[in-house]
Amino acid sequence: MSKQLFDVDKSLKECPPSILYKDKPGYRFKKRIVTRLDKIIPKSENQIREHLVKQSNASQLKRSFEASGWIHSKPPIAVSVNTDNKDLLDLEWGFTRYQAGSMNGWETMIVDVVEPDGAPLDVYSDKFLSNDHSGEAHTPNTCEDITNGALRAVKQGMLLDDKASIKSWIKRVTPDKTEGERRKIFRDYVSKKTSNGPVRTWHQGKGQNSVEEYAKANNLPYSGDKNFVKSGKLAYVTHYSTLKSVIGDCKQVMAEYDFKHPVHILGYIEEPKAAPALYRQRDEWMKNSQKYIDAECIWIQHIAKKCGSNLDINKIRENLGINLSGFYYQDQEPDPKNSGKTKESRVVDTYGNRVKEFDN
User: Fold this and answer.
1) Fewest 10 Å CB contacts: which of 7, 84, 241, 280?
2) Average pLDDT value for the chain
3) Where in the sequence is the domain holding 239, given as residue range(s)?
4) Helices 179-192 and 163-172 sit at what angle, rounded to 10 degrees?
5) What is the pLDDT of residues 236-261, one digit of tens each?
6) 349 plus 294 within the same structural domain
């Protein structure tokens, strides 16, 4: 997409900043421009969604952009000038729109250049209020986003941990939610405040928070023989625990490599909860996935029997060459016993212990 498909004057007329920023005391509007996407830095600390950029949401918006282009009555994404390099811009909000534009191969994007200009809580609250929730291709903040947002605000000293303050803040950042939803958010806040920890989410597209991006940076396998040269392993990474198609892919890539290498299946939880609930999610994923491995072994045993051979099911499992080997890490809670590094990294088992086989 080229610059001329963004009309700044039309955008200013149909989506005037005077209205857009009227109730946003945390930010000061400076100007609306068209800039190159490669100048924008999507800093994760500015992302308030609990599950970051969900690929399903970005894909839906990508299709909307393909069909209609940029709708000038919609708010632009917002950026601020990077403090270390004045030629770069930090993404303040609009992460899914940024991702969708990138997926479409856009070189430029219309943006509002803003400046954080209020109290820390105002700046933080405005990020929640500035997600565009209108239209079929847009997704609102979830109740979980708000619950965890309250937890972060208290942890960072922006918000008092008392009933009145928490309820007031929840109401402030949820003009689109019902009173029933707000009560649920507060109940979830109370139940989670003693055990919540940050979690990492993944998607199987390209770009930010993708399995591919992390695998390439850390010499891990991720899609059959992708990254085989650096990882030395064959693997598929998936959040699905229904492995029908994945097992077929495993058999195909194993054959392509003359059955000399096992194929690993690595999982991740699409919508992870804080540990220890994360461990229960993984355990359930593993149990369900194992059913598909067992079914494959039973099928082989059946075919062998029809051919006149009685094969032991355990021997089939041992020689199948398709292994449920663990999970891409997701628990980002700092570990004070390890200099504040995340409790999990690389590939882990159900309970977050590193699987040494994947440490290259």
Assistant:
1) 84
2) 89
3) 211-358
4) 130
5) 999 999 999 999 999 999 999 999 99
6) yes
CA 211 – CA 218 distance, rounded (Å): 11
Q: What is the pLDDT of residues 284-310, one digit of tens each?
A: 999 999 999 999 999 999 999 999 999
The C-alpha atoms of residue 122 and residue 172 are separated, in whole angstroms, by 10
CB atoms within 10 A of CB 188: 18
Q: How confident is the model at residue 188 (pLDDT cuts 50, 70, 90)?
A: confident
For the record, the structure tokens of 278 come out as 């994360």
Structural Rg of the chain based on CA atoms: 24
**Residue reference for tokens 């891409």:** 328
Same domain, 261 and 340: yes
Structural domain count, the chain: 3
What sign for the dihedral angle of Cα 250, 234, 355, 329?
Answer: negative
Query: Would you list the DSSP string of 52-64?
Result: -S-HHHHHHHHHH
User: What's the CA gap between 55 and 272, in Å, rounded?
Assistant: 15
Considering the domain architecture, whether residues 245 and 325 belong to the same structural domain is answered as yes
Burial letters 303-338, b for 16+ CB under 10 A, else e: eeeeeeeebeeeebeeebebbbbbbbbbbbbeeeee
**Which residues lie closer than 8 Å to 246 by C-beta, 6 or more apart?**
236, 238, 240, 265
Residues 217 and 178 in one domain: no
Cα–Cα distance measured from residue 191 to residue 130, given in angstroms and rounded to the nearest whole number: 27
